[in-house]
């Protein structure tokens, strides 16, 4: 059993699949902290967790910075001693976050994620740009490919790539991370080393990192070439040559927000006011300038209070989410409220109003207005 050596997990996680293990935290726990505790951070594994690296000092990363034919070995000690340690607080979101709502429009293929396949951590490690420069990177190359140690039964390993321009831009803060929230990265999150690409889809942030290759082509892995791509709403698995209809690989993510409290379908005890909380976030370092909340299904709107730790982030380098909160009077005699939230990012991108027009067969990139209907006990 390839899964026999998987690590122990918190019983608080809501499990979407056990082999491979995929789970997300309960909605009402997600926004308790600006930085998500490691044991509550959503886990997205495509494959069995690889055997632990028992002795990280005997382990090396392979770096092929001038193309696949010339590779160097870098030990964990080299990585920690030779390169400055950088720490970045970044939100990681799976492309499939909120897939469940998209599946409500029409069937999609993939795990049924609710709205918590997203989390924020303080990631520490070496800057990928520094490590590539030290190994004579060829700036004319176009992509950086990453290979994990986790493999399927045929030996195919998890892999993905990002543009080399992203990796080399010091203001993009791409890390080879060996710590998550001040501790060694847990096994589920990529021990001993993973890539962190702030503002980019989770799928490119390769865990259990084994090899880095600079190349003129994207990663040849299934997950780069055939998955995590956008499909138009009129294409499904029965469409002839559906692969030729895919858009480019997903990299930076669009603006997103969701209501985490009150959770859907839980009766809410209210006096005269109700407190609504959630997160907003956008890809590419775009900060959140506004979150609008409605209690009447979008007829009228009120601005939520944004967490000052989020709004203090640098322009185009706002890697962490924006927790938001709103306490408002409940309309007299109301028994049901349809809460809606929508965020605006620093490029004034807005979320689409509904899921149907952005439906895609893979169920990714759902960033429609988020709606929660609550029944009031009063
Ligand atoms: N890296 C490896 N090696 N194997 C994987 O299955 N899953 C990817 C990415 N990196 C994956 C991986 C996907 S799709 C996501 S969303 C993130 O890891 C999830 O990271 P997390 O499990 O630390 O939350
Ligand atoms: Mo993902």
TrEMBL record:
The record's subcellular locations are:
Mitochondrion intermembrane space
Q: Which cofactor does it need?
A: heme b; Mo-molybdopterin
EC number(s) on file: 1.8.3.1
Q: Which domain of life is it from?
A: Eukaryota
- Keywords from the named record: Heme, Iron, Metal-binding, Mitochondrion, Molybdenum, Oxidoreductase
Disordered: region residues: 1-27
Q: Name one GO cellular component term.
A: mitochondrial intermembrane space
- Top enzyme class: oxidoreductase
The answer on whether this UniProt entry bears the keyword Heme reads yes
Per its record, what are the GO molecular function terms? heme binding; molybdenum ion binding; molybdopterin cofactor binding; sulfite oxidase activity
UniProt pathway annotation: Sulfur metabolism; Energy metabolism; sulfur metabolism
One Gene Ontology BP term is: sulfur compound metabolic process
UniProt protein name = Sulfite oxidase
Instruction: State the organism named in the record.
Output: Chrysophaeum taylorii
What are the leading ranks of the lineage? Eukaryota, Sar, Stramenopiles, Ochrophyta, Pelagophyceae
């Amino acid at each position: 059993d390839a899964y026999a050596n998987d690590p122990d997990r918190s019983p608080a996680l809501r499990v979407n699949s056990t082999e491979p293990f995929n789970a997300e935290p309960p909605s009402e726990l997600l926004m308790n902290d600006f930085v998500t505790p490691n044991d509550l951070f959503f886990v997205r594994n495509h494959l069995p967790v690889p055997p632990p690296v028992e002795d990280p000092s005997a382990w090396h990363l392979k770096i092929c910075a001038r193309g696949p034919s010339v590779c160097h070995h870098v030990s964990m000690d080299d990585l920690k001693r030779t390169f400055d340690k950088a720490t970045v607080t970044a939100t990681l979101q799976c492309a499939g976050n909120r897939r469940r709502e998209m599946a409500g429009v029409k069937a999609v293929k993939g795990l049924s994620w609710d709205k918590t396949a997203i989390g924020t951590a303080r990631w520490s490690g070496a800057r990928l740009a520094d490590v590539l420069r030290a190994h004579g990177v060829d700036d004319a190359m176009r992509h950086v490919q990453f290979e994990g140690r986790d493999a399927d039964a045929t030996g195919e390993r998890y892999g993905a790539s990002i543009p080399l321009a992203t990796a080399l831009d010091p203001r993009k803060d791409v890390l080879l991370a060996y710590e998550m929230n001040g501790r060694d990265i847990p096994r589920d999150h990529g021990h001993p080393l993973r890539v962190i690409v702030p503002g980019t889809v989770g799928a490119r942030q390769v865990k259990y990192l084994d090899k880095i290759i600079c190349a003129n082509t994207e990663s040849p892995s299934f997950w780069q070439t055939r998955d995590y791509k956008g499909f138009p709403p009129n294409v499904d698995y029965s469409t002839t040559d559906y692969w030729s209809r895919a858009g480019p690989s997903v990299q930076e993510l669009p603006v997103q927000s969701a209501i985490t409290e009150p959770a859907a379908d839980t009766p809410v005890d209210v006096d005269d006011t109700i407190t609504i909380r959630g997160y907003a976030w956008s890809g590419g370092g775009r900060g959140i300038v506004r979150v609008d909340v409605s209690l009447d299904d979008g007829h009228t709107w009120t601005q939520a209070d944004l967490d000052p730790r989020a709004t203090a982030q640098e322009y185009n380098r706002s890697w962490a989410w924006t927790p938001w909160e709103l306490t408002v009077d409940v309309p007299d005699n109301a028994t049901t409220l349809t809460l809606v939230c929508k965020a605006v990012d620093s490029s004034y991108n807005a979320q689409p109003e509904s899921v149907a027009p952005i439906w895609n067969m893979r169920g990714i990139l759902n960033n429609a207005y988020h709606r929660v209907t609550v029944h009031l006990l009063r």
